[in-house]
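re: that complex we talked abt at group meeting.

here r the seqs, copy pasted straight from the sheet so there may be weird spacing, ignore it
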Amino acid sequence: MSVTVNIVRAGVFLDSVVLMQISRELTAIQGVEDAALMMATPANWDILSDAGLLEEDTMAGPGDLLVAVRAQDRAIADSTLQRAAELMERPAQQNSTPRELRPLTLRSACRQLPDANLALISVPGDFAGAEARKALRAGLNVMIFSDNVALAEEISLKREARDLGLVVMGPDCGTAIIDGVPLAFANVVPRGDIAIVGASGTGMQEVSCLIAHAGEGISHAIGVGGRDLTEAVGAISTLTVLDWLERDVATHHIVLISKPPAPSVVDQITEFIRRSSKSYTVCLVGSDNLALPDNAKLTTTLKDAAATAVTNSKGLEALPAVQRAPVAGSYVRGLYSGGTLAAEAQVVFLSHGQPVLSNAPVPGAGLFTSERTNHIMIDLGDDRFTRGRPHPMIDPAVRDEPICAALSDPDVGAVLLDVVIGFGAHADPAGHLAGLLDRHGRSGSVVIASVTGTDEDPQVRARQVSVLERAGVVVAPSNADAAELALACLNVG
Amino acid sequence: MVDTAALAPAIRWANSKALEILLQGDPVLIDVLPAKDLIPELKEHTILHAGPPIEWDRMCGPMRGAVAGVAVFEGWARDLDEAGVQASKGCFDFHPNHHFSAVGPMTGLTTCSQPLLVVENRATGNRAYCTVNEGLGKVMRFGGNDESVRDRLAWIRDSLGPALGSALQCCGGIPLRPLVARGLTMGDEMHQRNVACSSLLLRELAPALASVVADHGDLSEMLAFMGSNDQFFLNIAMAMGKSIMDPVRNIEQSTVVTAMTRNGTDFGIRISGLGDEWFTAPVEMPAGLYFPGFSAADANPDMGDSTIVETIGLGGFAMAAAPAVAGFVGAGSVAEAAGITARMREITLGEHPEWTIVSENYQGVPTGIDIRLVVETGIVPTINTGIAHREPGIGQVGAGVVKAPMACFEKALRALGERLGIS
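got the structure back, here u go
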């Protein structure tokens, strides 16, 4: 036999939505057949009556709050009324302050931030072009972080941007520092008068960090996308950015980092530099075959690019004296998260007359297929490895298996690694690597690494270095130095 | 071949014109008159209903219940059973309210003898109509049809309607734009919550009503009826919405939504650039809270012309002004409510200059829904609504929030693309 109990709270008003929410909570209690809290207006009285929730002698007026419960027994009814009282007196939730209302579209983002002049686009590649076009038409410069943007789309966007007096950075632009503000993968470096323009993310990171180590700073670091200096794209973004930097009073020296450019764009670039009032370093990783005007220096490694850009007497950190370790194998296995760092290592090896293979070979290097008895430099950030998996800079675990394989390989005398830190990168790549080496145990090969980053980065370079050194890793001051050390260990350099 | 780049400025221009007409709307409640005097096509056995066009065989339970009830009320049938037989034999002529400058909440039935509120848009001169709100619970708009429902309709027809008409003529009409502006600052969003506007209206209307109703008993009854009905203003807000949106129709190339409405079976929208064509999709089920004795299992799908208030930027679009209403689907926090209004800003072209939200630093409510933005963002309009019982004759069982179906907007955009030669 069920029991119906009413309680009248005379003169108490609560909002009907609040009362309905409490009612729903009470109705869910085990043993409660129905329950309702309502202001006792005539209309509500009818509803309560139809629902069989009224006691015969209940008296209440429209200004009174009626709590009505029908339950399986008296005890349940009483505890439900008690619960109703608790719910009515429950204080307002503390976390009810409005959270920041993040815009969901470019249109509303522009409304929230009418002075913005740059949009960073990170959507699946098929949609990046459409979003970039919207941004350009809204008067915004565009940094396209997305990859897999078709070449024809890139050309069309860059031409439209040029006509509008804007620039498209990218696609696949992972690094930028605009007026001191880091975007995507970037390091905390001091402000200074050196600008970096590059088609390569990790290359710009390495150069900016080496400049920082030497005590100088960066005005801007601007990525233009890996295809910008091809014949098809025609260096549209590079030329736009160089033109801006020419007029930028904060910039005195410009470092241009690229793969060897198409011959047709070389003339445009060199002609621009010839007319420019500023000095340049042109770093073509893998090629020293370019005639430049007097105000420009050509380098083939990132380390040399940084060294030529720095004007103070401190210079770059010197290569530490190498203690020749007794290593068993004869070959170096480089396992890189940064594509340009892998290219730079190849350049160092080739400069010492050492043949080298790679999945992304620089001019003079061979294409790696399956031959293991060679020096091999693998770019693990290559599309082939990252499809459907995170980039090794974000998740260092994707490098674990190749590292273990290299350590177990009797032909390998030295394993070469890059550790890239900064915004966007893994929170503790050195710790991850140390843990892996610890689990794997000692082997006959030496592990050599460099850390691309600064002590101001969230991961703190000095801390990453000491973690690596405690794990038995030889840490070089730069990526190029790490490659030199590897050769020295094998006594082939 | 069409130059799509050249189309963009034309669409932008058409939409700015649409928005201008929308924002200049100056609705005034001027009269209450019998429907047959306002809509000449409304003969005996003609029934106007909510939503896009629908015939008896596809009507949901509560709409069938209301049809039977109104047929008895109009004297076309002796009882509900006979009315049902007549309906199934095709004795009634069904048309959407929207085709006759009218709107109706939930089932939204409009017939010849019912008194209609008349709202005139003084900026454009057109008028729009809506029935008088019957109150809460078992009422015809939620499919109620018993004697008590019909008696109330008769009292509205014979007493309240004529008195309201006289009172409005006496006071020269009540401007609604400022009244809604005040209501928004007092926590109304004009769909789910009309407490403030109903009270403000009564305050303006009471003196005139007192001067035209001689009998104190009758006057008292009318004041009590309006004073005890928190949703009395809803029907006025709807006629207001219709009067504002009708002049926005038929602007070539405009992508602005001019009507959203549901008949309990289909959800339909109209857009300015495609005139009077309906784009429909199956209605969705509301999520919400229920009256004692009822649950989601009793609920009818979404219904009513009341979405005209969302079409002009109120209701779900003005959720930030009425955070409590957000409690129908969530915790009802201020942040949740603000989030809903923020999402609606993603799919609208402008903000109302006078209808502002205090908690958003007096930012205007988002208005002027652009189907291109809806399709591009995947954000559909959020609608606040009452919930009817799925069976005929029972009435309201709860209230909640529902989403407009995306398919309507996609169909409309595709149709407009074809019209403009883009395939």
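couple things i noticed - The mean pLDDT of chain B is 94. Chain B has two domains: 26-238, 249-419.
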